[in-house]
Model the fold of this input.
Amino acid sequence: MSLAGTHILTVEQFDLAKVEHLFKVADRMLPYARRERVTRVLEGAILGNLFFEPSTRSRLSFGAAFNRLGGHVRETTGFAFSSMAKGESIYDTSRVVSGYVDILVVRHPEEGAVGEFAAATNIPVINGGDGPGEHPTQALLDLYTLCQERGLRPGTLGGVNIAVVGDLRYGRTVHSLTKLLALEDSMRFICVAPSDLQLPDDLMQHLRERGHQVERIDDIAEGIRAADVVYMTRIQQERLPSGVVDGQQDRFRIDASLYDKVCRPGTVLMHPLPRDSRSGPSELTTDLNRYPKFAIFRQTDNGILIRMALFVLVLDVVDQLDITAREVTWYRPERFGVDDTRPMLR
Amino acid sequence: MSLAGTHILTVEQFDLAKVEHLFKVADRMLPYARRERVTRVLEGAILGNLFFEPSTRSRLSFGAAFNRLGGHVRETTGFAFSSMAKGESIYDTSRVVSGYVDILVVRHPEEGAVGEFAAATNIPVINGGDGPGEHPTQALLDLYTLCQERGLRPGTLGGVNIAVVGDLRYGRTVHSLTKLLALEDSMRFICVAPSDLQLPDDLMQHLRERGHQVERIDDIAEGIRAADVVYMTRIQQERLPSGVVDGQQDRFRIDASLYDKVCRPGTVLMHPLPRDSRSGPSELTTDLNRYPKFAIFRQTDNGILIRMALFVLVLDVVDQLDITAREVTWYRPERFGVDDTRPMLR
Amino acid sequence: MSLAGTHILTVEQFDLAKVEHLFKVADRMLPYARRERVTRVLEGAILGNLFFEPSTRSRLSFGAAFNRLGGHVRETTGFAFSSMAKGESIYDTSRVVSGYVDILVVRHPEEGAVGEFAAATNIPVINGGDGPGEHPTQALLDLYTLCQERGLRPGTLGGVNIAVVGDLRYGRTVHSLTKLLALEDSMRFICVAPSDLQLPDDLMQHLRERGHQVERIDDIAEGIRAADVVYMTRIQQERLPSGVVDGQQDRFRIDASLYDKVCRPGTVLMHPLPRDSRSGPSELTTDLNRYPKFAIFRQTDNGILIRMALFVLVLDVVDQLDITAREVTWYRPERFGVDDTRPMLR
Done:
């Protein structure tokens, strides 16, 4: 089950055993990610962090995860390599950069482009998002968080009710997470969306074939009532058919009063971020920030764990992780955020 | 008087005791900043260097200061996070990045925005400039240089005459430095500016209440005659009221011949940089570059010391600084610049 | 023959003895560049990687080379310093940055600008390309590769036939490589180009005065027939005089069938990259990628060796290179690229 030297391009590479192995390694990253310990396991290694479309958050997360392992990061933040503008192929770009660095993270606006990068090199390539395609580390960190919040291991989520809300048609994160959850047994998926943005038929079909219960619904209060976990996503106005009024966004919003009124105690709130916090379109209001089961920032914190785990697995240094470790001696707060309900080293 | 875990947002946080403590720590940075010794005190730590408006010099200075302490730097150089364009709040951005890094430097075009970042996180935030607001590290490095050039400690500047010249109305650096100098006893401030760009009344009032002597003057030759220190700033043509001719800039310029003619021996020349070196608007001409009291590049060199000192103070590693230190073995010049009149390890 | 503390601005600084010394040091970089060993020789040092025009490949290569030696990299990727837009001179910018970092790599769109940077500082400056001027590390890596591919040392290339093809008039890389090759004895230069883009007269004259044989020719099949090495470059359509049709580019192209038909066995194919891989303008077609003497990616791999060698020479740490070295323990492939015909540690 070694991932040494492999490309990480899609969640479809993962079965339950691989997911569980990854999550165990991610657990071991906790003291390093949360600044209790420092390791030099990848000292001297270089990550090529190639972002051909802007995604500041993901770029910083991958870079920080590599730094936490002691490695260097070289990166591009522009829309394109200057040389690609002169007609250079992805093959050439990938092969050239492979001579510089030890591992690549590639983000690209076009579906399949990251796969093209991977096809040209023996250096491991991690998909940092390829347009409407995949963003596997996001799906993995979502699943990791979901397991953690419910106190369950992968493969034991049977019986959990998850409400996925918002843009289920175009939302890449929903599709990838759903594919991972499909590996479980007997979950219940409550798909809450405007009819034009409902979960695609093939995904629903796939879930049902795997033995899951799937419902489509367009009323949020009803949709989240039975949920153990609510996975909110943003509806972009421009996705809605013309003629559909702004009110659609209002209909797919959770605020503290709705949560208090209809949710079960302990219902977990998740979101892939960014959350829209402008007063009009906000889908998950800020009055929820201090709720104990408001997990959206724990998701992004966990992104560091998952990305670190993938780095040590594909670069095959899991067993060396602790050899060069020492205690952190600089200041660190108990909690990252002022509204965090748990200390960072849970 | 510990600064561990605190945000550095404004010079108003500093009293004379804190300034003196900071400067003593800055002194200890000298061998590390000037490449005599290397330390690993922040090995494994990560600075998030978030520049929401371009300021190459400040960005490089903060980053280099953190590297000199052994730490990693992750940064953004664009105008905005891509996610903020989608409606993400400063609160969310700050909380997310706090999960990635150990300390933040934030530069932002809007006054107060850096304070908003700080309000959302327990990770220390250093203000790298917030529009017309504050740029505290600039004021601190200015004061550090002024003290060094006059051979004085903070709290002992009484009797020093400082001429501040140029745009005293909008110039952020002048305001911040003035606030710090106001902590001293009985200085003399000679404010040399076009009447439309004179020091604001409230600042003049504040200085007088603190017992300082303040004069407003619009003739530069007269203004710098009695000065021990001249702090030049740039007048931006667009700040001048329409109808005012270019000649205004010429009237607030110091060149070698004016300096030789009117200045006391040993008058220190300072400037927050960038200096405009185009032939027309230049406010401090290049024929002064080799003058021994031309201190403008010592200011920027000292910026590294001050920023390093703030990092070790807020991350609380002052006492560990020398533990992992070793001698530098690579080539370093005696003097950084070809016209420097002093060796870098003064 | 020490390069300690010197600027690297032009190939004209190099004689055969210096080239040979540099190449010997480059050879020693192989285990570090190809991830067999890690060194900390420049731990704590900072490279200022200043790119005033976009060149992602060169920027990443210099940065990775410095990281491989254990050093930090601070960089600018924009078109200009924000302060230069406000009238700051190159002198001031160079002096300021010299207070931050230990060595500078500067890329600039204007010829001579990098020399201006160097003139203002005692910190070593390496020219990363100054517009139509020089790009000395490219020429040195080209020559290094040429020697390696032919199994020869610098100074022993006499009798080698090199065909230089494409834009010989404006092509900066051809000019710089030619100047280096001129140091050899009795080579044969076959200059294959449209007449409007032939090698400039002064360069041809220079080669002949040094005792080389030089021919100008505009038929590629004939031109490469006798070549031991073919150095291809890209013809940019906009360089051709108006009225000249697209067909010109087609006439200066090598594909597998032309190579098989006319080239001697073992003819080396080189290219400074980027190669244009669009179907129309491609000058070196992808069906050559698996040919054993297709050396274009070995050139770029060797760029890391040459840049590392220059860094350790100008920073004077050659003798300390192995002191802190240790074995790499993370995953690395046998070959970087999927079509590579040789393992990375040749």
Remarks:
- Chain C touches chain B at residues 4-5, 41-46, 48, 72, 74, 76-78, 81-84, 86-89, 91-92, 95-102, 119-124, 314-317, 320 (CB under 8 Å).
- Residues 296-314 of chain C form the longest helix (19 residues).
- The domain at 137-297 of chain C is CATH 3.40.50.1370 (Rossmann fold).
- The mean pLDDT of chain C is 93.
